[in-house]
Design goal:
Uridine Diphospho-n-acetylenolpyruvylglucosamine Reductase, domain 2; flavoprotein; four-stranded mixed β-sheet; cytoplasm; EC 1.3.1.98; binds uridine-diphosphate-2(N-acetylglucosaminyl) butyric acid; Uridine Diphospho-n-acetylenolpyruvylglucosamine Reductase, domain 3; 3 domains; 337 residues; alpha+beta; Uridine Diphospho-n-acetylenolpyruvylglucosamine Reductase, domain 1; five-stranded antiparallel β-sheet; peptidoglycan synthesis
Length: 337
């Protein structure tokens, strides 16, 4: 384990923001994680996974611990299901492709989501009609203060839309080291409920889709709408889709009957922030090196040398405008550091 000083995090955050860590260490085993936490007990620490869901607006005056635990394996199986475990530092998309190659079903709709496996439970990642809570069994995590391992079952995680216990009661207290998923071996629950997937499969003349067909359709949709962080810095959806009271929705709907919406419950409706942002005129706009993506207004982008502060300023401008024009408060999905 080598601790490096004044370390650039540009390559460690998908926004590609230049920010420095006071100290940086990459961790390759649970034992090393325990040692580093014990040796640096009283110092400020910052845990870094794939860096795909954060906006760095300043240098980090702490020891940055980059979780780079690797390995994935089948734990057990029966005739219908397989239990697979991945270490936290595995790249999510590579893990998904590994499951599909073995004809294990359940993760295909979440192909090409940036980031590492260990951070997926934190915000219950999801796309195209599926969330990880649908296949999640448990995750192991180390308590930062005591270095004692704890298993969080699905019930313990309190999953919600882009929500979990790790954003609330357990926030900043644990480091997820591995995750277990239960996937199907046969009778796969193919989910084409999301309109874009059906359209994409029709385009490809696929009638009875396999897991690979779904994955390929999702990849094609994402590539057409969402920028590749390797080419254009971004953190996926910058905002959450707001969930508003039905009464408020009805008022906005009366003025904008064409606004898409999803009924969440009898009293709540979710509306797409991307639509609101596009309607407010921000889609494709550029302010210096910070901007709003041309194909998906929910995604803020770094054209090269934007600072985190510049991107943050754009996000605040968007929030204020949406509040003024629609009376709807939209909340960041990414962690602003
Ligand atoms: N829309 C617009 N303009 C835009 C973007 C979207 O009018 O610029 C409209 C679309 O036409 C559609 C609706 O908004 O009617 C929803 O758009 P889309 O299907 O692209 O999905 P989203 O709600 O904008 C969410 C997730 C994405 C995920 C997609 C697909 C959140 C915050 N985002 O986006 O997740 O890939 O659904 O399931 O829930 C991420 O979290 O980083 C992410 C990319």
């Amino acid at each position: 384990m080598t601790i490096q000083n004044n370390f650039s995090l540009k390559k460690y955050n998908t926004f590609g923001i230049e920010a420095k860590a006071k100290q940086f260490v990459a961790i390759h085993s649970v034992e090393d994680l325990k040692t580093i936490l014990q040796e640096h007990q009283s110092e400020p620490k910052f845990i870094l996974g794939g860096g795909s869901n954060m906006l760095l607006t300043q240098d980090i005056q702490a020891l940055v611990i980059h979780i780079d635990l690797k390995g994935k394996k089948v734990l057990k199986e029966d005739d219908d299901y397989v239990w697979v475990e991945s270490q936290a530092g595995e790249n999510w998309h590579e893990f998904v492709l590994w499951t599909i190659d073995q004809n294990f079903g359940g993760l295909e709709n979440m192909s090409l989501i940036p980031g590492n496996v260990g951070t997926t439970p934190v915000q219950n990642i999801g796309a195209y009609g599926t969330e990880i809570k649908d296949t999640f069994v448990s995750c192991d995590a180390m308590n930062i203060a005591t270095q004692v391992m704890k298993t969080f079952t699905k019930e313990n995680c309190h999953f919600g839309y882009r929500e979990s216990v790790f954003k609330h009661e357990a926030k900043d207290q644990f480091i997820i080291t591995s995750v277990i998923f239960k996937l199907t071996k046969r009778n796969h629950k193919i989910n084409t409920s999301y309109g874009d997937i059906t359209k994409e499969l029709e385009k490809q003349n696929v009638v009875t889709p396999t897991l690979k067909d779904i994955s390929n359709a999702v990849i094609a949709i994402r590539q057409s709408k969402l920028p590749d962080p390797k080419e254009l810095g971004n953190s996926g959806s910058f905002f959450k889709n707001p969930i508003i009271p039905k009464t408020q929705y009805e008022k906005v709907h009366a003025l904008h009957p064409e606004m898409p919406h999803y009924v969440v419950s009898e009293t709540e409706v979710k509306v797409p922030a991307g639509w609101l942002i596009e309607r407010a005129g921000f889609k494709g706009k550029r302010f210096g090196d910070a901007g709003i993506h041309k194909n998906q207004a929910l995604v803020l982008v770094n054209y090269g040398n934007a600072t985190g502060q510049e991107i943050l300023a754009v996000s605040r401008d968007i929030q204020a405008t949406i509040l003024k024009e629609f009376g709807i408060a939209i909340e960041a999905e990414v962690n602003v550091i």
